[in-house]
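In keeping with the milestone schedule agreed at the kick-off meeting, the structural modelling team has produced records for the first pair of proteins. Each record is given below as a sequence line and a structure-token line. The laboratory manager (R.T.) confirmed that both were archived under the project's standard naming scheme.
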Amino acid sequence: MGGALLAGSGAGTLGASTPAGGTLPGVAPDVARRLARLDPERIGPDDVREVLARVPAPRIIALQGSVALVTMEPFAEFLVAMGYPRPALANPRDGALSQSSFGSSEALAGTLAWHYEREGIVPLLIGHSQGGMLAIRTLHELAGAFNDRLAVWDPLQDAPLPRTTIVDPATGRERPVLGLAVPWACAIATGKLPRLLLGQWSMLSRLTEIPDTVGEFTGFAMEWDPIAGNFGSVEPFVATGRAAVRNVVLPSDYRHVLLPQASGLAREAATRSWIDTYAPGAAAPLPAGVDTTNLIHAADIWHSVRKHWCREAQRLLAARSAS
């Protein structure tokens, strides 16, 4: 299973070393050559527009919180405005850009496998509030914390298939849903207090523990966030094994229920320019004279999204070149 897990997670280090002798179906050779030379950590707007927009993109599943009126649609629209393909954000069943967090982690895990089998890339997960809990629970689900077998789940019919394995597109061999790894996931303002109030007991001890079924994980939190249960401090997310985990503390003037509101940041020239040049740990001073609410997590998430967009496309290109 180890080889299939690596192939499915996009965990390999790619970039300048990616073979440039092959191409991808529907991708022009010159675009493939430029893709092979990209550094995933340094993707500029020209790279997005001229290269990444012309190659396969990971599907992104955006999970909203428990309040029905607060969806992830504005954040998905932000990603579209920054250059991400809308079809890769849309639910294939109904076209929605935001999905409920009251679903089953078994179903979501099986859905990830369904997409990987057909598209060659395991989807990325972005969860706000309870949506972050569901994303993390799904990582534990894939790690075998709740079940020793997981059915493939058809999102078009919203129903399980009568099998617990897929044909791994990277190897051509059969493999179980269990153990599949997500390239990157994040949780925004996801705390333990709602788990206690909503009776989600099985996640209380696991909420801040990130298993190896994700390559990279980012947790965003505010020190003063009564809805999440933070009263002056933040409990950090920690890796239980090899996962690369980052914790980002957001400004105190951000508001829990308004965190998905980011679409305007892509339309304002000053904030968009700041986002385009953002890199974790090396951010410039915030732009003056404009509304910068939600700018930090929006920029950080866009950095991770374009990074893994590049990595996964490079992985597909490398596999094509090798074959």
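The second protein of the pair:
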Amino acid sequence: MGTRTLVLVRHGQYATETGGKLTALGREQADCTGRFLAKQLEGERVHALWASTLPRARETASILGGSLSQMKVRAVSVLREGMYSKVKGYEVPAEERAEDRARADAAFEKFFRTSRTDRLEIVVCHGNLIRYLVCRALHAPVVRWTRMNSSHCSLTRILVRDTGAVRVVSYNETGHLPMKWVT
């Protein structure tokens, strides 16, 4: 049995008026993050590069993939953004929240499982989902996801040991980005 290492990356800054595509700053954030990861992971094999199906995540993953030896991006809908509980100021129907939560739980089951060999996977997705997954990993009440911050192109590192134990190594790392790019 091996250890699964997950590097969760929140997508870069985006604009809703362009259909969710990255802004110029978002592309800079993604490029900087890709170069940082390439340097940090030099000599290590990245087994998979996953992304949400939404444009901002796919575009961020594509930019990262270019820095990581032209890795192919695997887009999966289970990584889409969602609202997992009531949030003041957002009117999301209970049925939609339940669907979002079921999808987030499916993402946890897919990515936070043991592996027969050591694996390193990069997962580009959304702040809400990353916060929800971290709460699940910590066995914290999942409604706490609303109290956490998540910056664009931040890194969250998680280990899934061969025993099934999940360890959050770091959350919302932004030290690789210039301060003026942290959004």
